TetR/AcrR family transcriptional regulator (Colwellia maritima), 194 residues
Amino acid sequence: MVGIRKFDEEKVLDIAIAVFSSKGFNATTMQDLAKETGVQRGSLYNAYQNKNVLFLKVFSHYTDKFLIFIEGELQHPDAKKAFTQLFKTIENRLCGDQEKRGCFSTRAIMEAAQQCPDIHLSLARFLEGLEVIMKKRLEQAIKDQQFIGDAQSTARYLVALTRGIAVIERVYHDNARMTEIYQTALAFMPFRKV
């Protein structure tokens, strides 16, 4: 039957994230994905029709997990500590990548978004979701009298900062530089002393 998957889709999507991250969208072929996942190329086409559709599924899988991760990192009751922990964890994830693939949403998605309107729309939704999570946490910090800034504009700034830091990591591979950037950002954010 068409579209019935006889493979572990989550495992295939996780492997596809690594392939797209390593090779980029343009250089990745369905044959590459078949080889790395161990799923026949015909089965991948049967399940996903083409590389763009598979990439959209991979990106959705990645962003769902990433947004849950971000939300979890921001759970600390002290807002400044929550954002400090978030930044440190992002830094460790990026710098701990032994293969130096970089951030999936920075490397592969930007390349793909230029070619496919559906992928561009998925990227916009991801960034908006990231912004919503950060804004909610900042609004809670305002209610708790821990933060005196504007939640919306600060959330947008933080989204830009986290995406920009992924680029910095790709260029320098330097934990100290990333730590300095995050510490500077936190120092300029209007948190109240607790």
